[in-house]
Amino acid sequence: MRRTAARIAFATxxxxxxxxxxxxxxxxxxxxTAQHADxxxxxxxxxxxxxxxxxxxxxxxxxxxxxxxxxxxxxxxxGFLNSLTAALDDMAGGIRNAGVPPVPDGQSAVDKAxxxxxxxxxxxxxxxxxxxxxxxxxxxxxQKVIADADSTMSGLSEPEGPxxxxxxxxxxxLAFAExxxxxxxxxxx
Length: 189
Fold this sequence. Notes:
Layout: H1 2-23, H2 39-57, H3 70-97, H4 106-133, H5 139-152, H6 163-167, H7 170-178, H8 180-186
Helix pairs in contact: 1-2, 1-3, 1-5, 1-8, 2-3, 2-7, 2-8, 3-4, 3-5, 4-5
């Protein structure tokens, strides 16, 4: 159970890492004082930061696991995976709804970021479906559900989340570094 709880926590970390990385949208001083982000790129990044905040807010209350209540633990895990799925949708929607970034290769960065979110959602959804269908009556059956979930989610290994694809674009990275909206929403890292 600890390992699957850890994987669910990792999925949460992956999603919230997007928010945390956005928290690193910058400091009070731009990294390169001679170069500043294009205002249109800053506006785009501000939309993304706000959209990701909506998704990550759904994950602010992770479930409490009670080893003495196998069915309750399963129910809590199912509820959290539902929240995680909705949060991933919100984050991808926030990125897509911001439109095409007004920078060279901006659409490519968006495509990679939303693809990462989609792959994560696919794994979470598969885990959720298996968990919902599983019969949990005792610790042994709970351990089986957890082992299955662990197996399904084992491929989640993107600790930086989808934002790394956006920040790989130099112009977007500069905009993330200068975005006051990102600092207001997420604080300084």
